[in-house]
């Protein structure tokens, strides 16, 4: 997943990078300086074309030579004689001086970004709109970032610990990483909360996640909040008491999958449904050549095992595949079913989780244990 996320991360566009450059500290007046510089260059070309007069008589310059003459002045070029009129003499001083100011300001901005990388991250984040702010780069946070990139979303990360080992990895994906406590208004502003689509507090601390959520809501009451908790009761209370859009208990999400795995079922994901807590599972299988399922259609397997096909790669990927699709050896398919149905299919072909055992020769049909 990390390599896929890296491939999906294209980083800011050139227009965003340009905007970020102008939003660096001490660069607020740079745009004005550039406009003044451009106007001076245009005026200089016109004046050189109309008025330039060297000692010993008038020397007419056509438009292209006037442009060339002005650009030589930027570097104190000596290819043209000192003019006789005051306006042209002023230009001979003004053009290189303003040019030096522009170059100096550019170097200052770049040096500021190189010396303090955080300034550049904040500047880039300020150019994002409808992005998602992920708070915390723990085991859950890094997976959330991966999936958001996979889905083509712009992401800004807030991380309290600059030494967090995943920071360098995420930075290599060209994602802005803001360091600081995400419950502070200044840090949220640096992550451009006011233009974000949602915020995901997913640190390992329930209280910290709640503090981040309430701070974000105080700044933007309409911000979408998806919050991670460890307590089932806290998750339920937060959704009702604090109007949190989604509060997920990681223990509640993981518990069904752990229970299913404990029963030797090769389950990828599991969740309970309804008041009677019917356990539904989602599992990926790889169809091997010797499997009795090879050559069967999607519809036949669904009828025989009472499962629902969610996706098939055979070899092209298809969601909700048609009933008449014939499954060939080597194809991969994802089904949703009860635990009993998953166990039945697992006796006929290995799940993706067990395929390594199949390749080693330690998995055998009718014996998935």
Task: Write a structural description.
The structure is a single chain. The chain has 369 residues and is α/β, with parallel strands linked by helices. The chain folds into three domains: 93 residues, Helix Hairpins (Orthogonal Bundle); 128 residues, Rossmann fold; 98 residues, Alpha-Beta Plaits (2-Layer Sandwich), CATH 3.30.70. 47% of the residues lie in helices and 16% in strands. The protein is built from 15 helices and 13 strands. It has a six-stranded parallel beta sheet, with helices on both faces. A five-stranded antiparallel beta sheet has the order 9-10-13-11-12. The N terminus is likely disordered.
Rg estimate, integer Å: 32 Å
For the record, the CATH architecture of the largest domain stands as 3-Layer(aba) Sandwich
Number of domains: 3
Q: Residue share in helices? A: 40-55%
CATH topology of the largest domain: Rossmann fold
Query: In what range is the share of β-strand residues?
Result: 15-25%
Give the CATH class of the largest domain. Alpha Beta
Biggest sheet details: 6 strands, parallel
Poorly predicted segments: 3-8
SS elements, strand count:
13
Task: Break the fold down into its secondary structure elements and pairings.
Layout: H1 2-8, H2 14-22, H3 30-51, E1 53-54, E2 57-58, H4 63-74, H5 86-115, H6 117-125, E3 132-135, H7 139-150, E4 155-159, H8 167-172, E5 177-179, H9 185-190, E6 198-201, H10 206-219, E7 224-229, H11 232-241, E8 246-249, H12 250-262, E9 269-273, E10 278-286, H13 298-305, E11 308-313, E12 317-319, E13 332-338, H14 339-346, H15 355-360
Parallel strand pairs: 3-4, 3-6, 4-5, 6-7, 7-8
Antiparallel strand pairs: 1-2, 9-10, 10-13, 11-12, 11-13
Helix pairs in contact: 1-7, 2-6, 3-4, 3-5, 5-6
